[in-house]
Structures are given as C-alpha cells and as structure tokens.
Amino acid sequence: CSLQGDYHEAETYYLQALEIFESTLGISHPDCNDILIKLGNIFLAKKDLPKAKLNFLKVVENTKDLLDVHYLASINGLGLVYLEIGDYASAERCWLEILKYSQSHSGAIYHNLGLLYEQKGDFDRAKMSYIEALKDSTMHISSYIKSITSLGGCCVKLGLLDEAELYLIEAKDLCNSTLGALHEHHVIILNLLGDMYIQLGDYVQSEKFLLEALDICELIKKDNRTYGTTLLNLGVLYASMGEYLSSEKYYLHYM
Q1: What are the residue ranges of helices labelled H in the chain?
Q2: Low-confidence ranges of the chain (pLDDT < 70)
Q3: At 93, phi and psi to the nearest 5?
Q4: CB atoms closer than 10 angstroms to residue 20
Q5: pTM for this predicted structure
Q6: pLDDT tens digits, residue range 118-149?
Q7: How many CA atoms lie within 13 A of 25 on its CB side?
C-alpha cells in the first residue's frame, strides 16, 4: 500500500501488525523494528515529522548493535527528519555516524549529505558528496540517476556549465533507457538542461528541452511543482529572447 502512496491504509495495517508482534515477540524483536522503520518512513512521506522522529527513536532505543541494519536505517531516517526541519547539524551528525560504522549503501548517505550541503548553500561540498555517492557500485539505477542529476544541477549552481552538461546528458540518456521518457524525473532533468542552456545563451536547445518537459507534464499530470518549474523556466527563456508576449503567457500560467 505504501508503495502506491496509500499511506493511511498502510499505516493501519502496520500498526495492527506491530501490536501483534509486540505482544508475541517483544518490542525489541527485529520484526518490530522493521515495522517501526516502515511507519517512520510513512510519517516522513506524510510530513508528520514528530511521529516519524518518534518511530525512528524507538528503533534506536531497541537496538544496541551499531552495525544493526535497523539501527542504521533509523539513524538515516532521523537524518531525513532533521533535514526537513532545517536542523542541518543534527542531520549531518546522523549521516556521518552511519559512514563511520558502515559503508553499506554509502551512495544513499552521501546523496543525502549532498542535499544537506545544497540546502545550506555549500555547493562545493555538495558536489563532492554527490561524486562520492556515484562511487557506490551497489546503487540501484534509479538512485544513480538521481545522484548524477543532482551533481549536474549542483554544477549549474557553481557555474560549471560544461561539466554540468556532461552529467545531465548522461542522466537524461539513462533515464530514458531505464525509467522511460515519461518518467517524472525526466522532467526534472529536462528543466535543469533548459536552465543550463539559458545560461549558456543557447536558447534553441533550451526551448527544445523545456517544451519537451511541458509536453510530458501535460501527459502525466502528476507533479504540480515540476509543472510550475517548467512554466517558470519557459517564462525566463522567452524573456531572455525578448519574446515578451510568450514570456508573459507562461508567467501567468505559472501564477
């Protein structure tokens, strides 16, 4: 259920299972910790951060082994909670603690650190974190695509546009061949490319990618934020080209 975004139904079943397991196996049993982490992730997705934090802390209290998979997952979950509330120091401590004890799934942890440093405006450290993330050979292809996309976007913010182009084109090709051209992450990549080409002054290429992003948004109708970003970027593009009527049209749609 949770994979489909039906969080309420998933939460109900997990709470029922947790009650049964706690009474029969004990609160410290790995199955209970597994459910607590799943619940924490659901609350995190719902932006119910106090409940997410509470569930992750319960797992920390239940597990004593610093290498326990549930302990590490709960510390990662706490890091994501702290990132959401802007407590960057606590989030960083969580993820550095994981890397201190385990390099398993280090790509995801370095990616999270990259997000943290980007939010702090430290784009150089963010770039290095994304590069470290890409070294994890166990990363799922979708995670690899997200990290190389973030790396490309970070390079755009640093003004390293030639380098950004290489990363974003690779991300685009991988996304098309694995996730599909209509995947919502493809829209994110297209917008980054469109923004980058505006900065390079290549308005033809920018228009090509942004209009493709707009077509996909209108087809999938999933992420209003991504659709809004596309409209905004088109407004910026046409203003840069001096086509103010077209620019105004997209700005008005964006509003």
Answers
A1: 7-24, 30-45, 49-62, 69-85, 88-101, 106-120, 123-133, 141-158, 161-174, 184-200, 203-220, 224-241, 244-254
A2: 1-5, 66, 222-223
A3: -60, -40
A4: 13
A5: 0.88
A6: 999 999 999 999 999 999 988 899 999 999 99
A7: 15
